[in-house]
Amino acid sequence: MKKLTLILIAFITSFLNSQSKKESWETYIATYEKSKPGSTTVRMDLINSVPNKEFEYVLVTGIKYESKREDGFPEKQTFDKLYKVTDGIIEILNKNCKNIIVGSFTYDYERLDYFYLQSENGIKEKLENFYKRNFPKEKYYINLIKDTNWKYYREFLYPNEETINYIEDEKVVRQLIQAGDKLKKERQVDHWVYFSKKENLSLFRKEIEKLNFKIKSQNEKASLERPFEIRIWKVHKVDLNSVNLITNQLRELAKKYNGDYDGWETSVEKE
Fold first, then answer.
1. Closest CA to 43 of 200, 153, 139
2. What is the pLDDT of residue 271?
3. Of 22, 30, 156, 270, which shows the fewest CB atoms inside 10 Å?
4. Which has the closest alpha carbon to 55: 151, 154, 146, 156?
5. Residue 79: is it exposed, middle or buried by C-beta count within 10 angstroms (0-12/13-18/19+)?
6. 21 conformational bin, left if phi > 0, alpha if psi -120 to 50, beta if neither
């Protein structure tokens, strides 16, 4: 299945809260086949260190569950069962082989966990016994194959660039909401962009001025890979859909001139 249109960012589950602070996890929801939503939870901090040749097997496993929800997501009472499944899988893996859990995917009344393993070591048979003994009424899924290039992680679980940008915007919007902002008022929003060459910054500046952005500051910071910084601003809405349209526009313009868009900030406006 291929990721299509991003809908929203979901909550981080209690399972993720138990992970090491050194690990970085995100959860996002996207639309898949037949316009059905799927929820992906993925470990983000591994992307620059994979493929890891020591862990050449990928394990995808989980169960089908019942739910009255039309979107196919589990009901509240179902989560306890799903957590027990994951805990049981982890216990089996930890006893039999070195492993890395990289994410999960919940879609169409099914939740699958993704692991990378150093060896097969009879894992498939052990998992079959686990499901039959503990969840005899549920249909289970086990897929254990070689994935030396970590394609399951890099190409399916890990979010594409559009989704990552949406996640970053959502983090700022969430902070505003937590501070009591209703997101109804337009306000000044500052954006940062960096360039390796001053002439590229100048070309970018001409384009954004046509889009009614104002220049707040322009600096050179020799210690950075892209030393030429420009800070621009504009009065606009900050609800997630509105701000994401603007940041995507700025990201594309920055790319056009080999620049790097580096985020935005604004004031908290309470009614």
1. 153
2. 74
3. 22
4. 146
5. middle
6. alpha
Question: Within a domain: residue 1?
Answer: no
Q: Binning pLDDT at 50, 70 and 90, where does residue 34 land?
A: confident
Q: Note down the domain range covering 211.
A: 161-266
Say if residues 48 and 154 touch (Cβ distance below 8 Å). Answer: no
Q: How far is it, in rounded angstroms, from Cα 128 to Cα 42?
A: 25
Tokens for 99? 């492993």
179 and 122 in a common domain: no
Tokens 């049981």 appear where? Answer: 88
User: Does residue 73 contact residue 106 with C-beta atoms inside 8 Å?
Assistant: yes
Instruction: For residues 116 and 51, state if they share a domain.
Output: yes
Q: Give 9's pLDDT tier (boundaries 50, 70, 90).
A: very low
Question: What would the two tokens of residue 61 be?
Answer: 């496993």
Position 182: which residue type? K
CATH of residue 249: 3.30.70.970
Of the candidates 246, 249, 220, the one whose C-alpha atom is nearest the C-alpha of residue 234 is 246
Six token digits for residue 20: 């090491």
CA distances from 54 to 40, 58, 98, 117, 266 (A): 25, 12, 9, 8, 45
pTM: 0.79
